[in-house]
């Protein structure tokens, strides 16, 4: 059963519930009970970056690591990685076909069916760890069927997907904290930097289950000094390299991964090497080759941050990276209409940038270039609408940051042959 057929049978809609997932997994023999030790990661921002850095550290320590992430950028196979490699086409097709046959036409969402297929693949291929990223929320996410994860991590929580998770930070944090469960291994819950309200909600959930906590700002912290990352925790200080992933916000993500690795018993030399090497596309990724790069007059960067917190992090990076530059910077932007475009755009109100706005190709729910341009101009930004990505890049002045949506990032990487 191909992905296209599966998507046709079970459209990509969101219906947060675990009943369908439990029923399908039971019919499949409950593969979720036969997984490698699970590190479950929830949060709004930084999940993927934290996962990538932790995976790099574990692999540097000699571990075999599976991972499950979403969404993908170019190929669906990116979501399911077995021992560091994307799942093969043959194995993906066989596993999806098995899930579809066992499901036998019962109601199921695309994400639930593909998550079940991932669990089947993970259960049949040995590894030391499975890094499991939550898709949406946590409490009712299809990944939240693990009885006893080895370790749970909650990255920064911010406003996003309010139509599904709640309209305030405390309600969203409660959904994220839904991944926390009673544990017998004594491993602490790693809580990254949080808004005070979110932290209170997460801590209350952990206290309910008598889970030990390691909270950023309370039990541990991180800062940069003399070109190094310093992580301070109850047992002392760790003097580490600056993470390979770019941006000041990656300091918090890196330190979160470091704390997880520390409590997993990973050697410090592996933590150091792992910090330097992770690759996580479309997170302040500098594109250096490809046909789109040939159209530009300056550097081309790519980022898929699509909510206000991500936009604020981008604005800080723009201010730092281009602070001494005397050439202009152009943002090529595309946003989904499900996002708060006004809040995203307002994050750049103090940045000296020009916005070239486009409609995200092949995405019916994208803002049109003209609608996004109007919103940008209303926010006091210089903005122009363009019919397509190529024209927007050719017209860009100076360096370019393509941003606004992971869907746009995936399109860019595919068009640029990355």
TrEMBL record:
EC class (word): ligase
Function: Functions in two distinct reactions of the de novo folate biosynthetic pathway. Catalyzes the addition of a glutamate residue to dihydropteroate (7,8-dihydropteroate or H2Pte) to form dihydrofolate (7,8-dihydrofolate monoglutamate or H2Pte-Glu). Also catalyzes successive additions of L-glutamate to tetrahydrofolate or 10-formyltetrahydrofolate or 5,10-methylenetetrahydrofolate, leading to folylpolyglutamate derivatives.
GO MF annotation, one: tetrahydrofolylpolyglutamate synthase activity
Reactions the enzyme catalyzes: (6R)-5,10-methylenetetrahydrofolyl-(gamma-L-Glu)(n) + L-glutamate + ATP = (6R)-5,10-methylenetetrahydrofolyl-(gamma-L-Glu)(n+1) + ADP + phosphate + H(+); (6S)-5,6,7,8-tetrahydrofolyl-(gamma-L-Glu)(n) + L-glutamate + ATP = (6S)-5,6,7,8-tetrahydrofolyl-(gamma-L-Glu)(n+1) + ADP + phosphate + H(+); 10-formyltetrahydrofolyl-(gamma-L-Glu)(n) + L-glutamate + ATP = 10-formyltetrahydrofolyl-(gamma-L-Glu)(n+1) + ADP + phosphate + H(+); 7,8-dihydropteroate + L-glutamate + ATP = 7,8-dihydrofolate + ADP + phosphate + H(+)
Keywords carried by this UniProt record: ATP-binding, Folate biosynthesis, Ligase, Magnesium, Membrane, Metal-binding, Nucleotide-binding, Transmembrane
InterPro entries xrefs: Folylpolyglutamate_synth (IPR001645), Folylpolyglutamate_synth_CS (IPR018109), Mur-like_cat_sf (IPR036565), Mur_ligase_C (IPR004101), Mur_ligase_C_dom_sf (IPR036615), Mur_ligase_cen (IPR013221)
Protein name in UniProt: Dihydrofolate synthase/folylpolyglutamate synthase
Species in which this protein is naturally found: Candidatus Micropelagius thuwalensis
E.C. designation(s): 6.3.2.12, 6.3.2.17
Region forming the signal peptide: none
Pathways per UniProt: Cofactor biosynthesis; tetrahydrofolylpolyglutamate biosynthesis; Cofactor biosynthesis; tetrahydrofolate biosynthesis; 7,8-dihydrofolate from 2-amino-4-hydroxy-6-hydroxymethyl-7,8-dihydropteridine diphosphate and 4-aminobenzoate: step 2/2
Cofactor: Mg(2+)
One family name in Pfam for this protein: Mur_ligase_M
Domain spans labelled Mur ligase C-terminal: 300-400
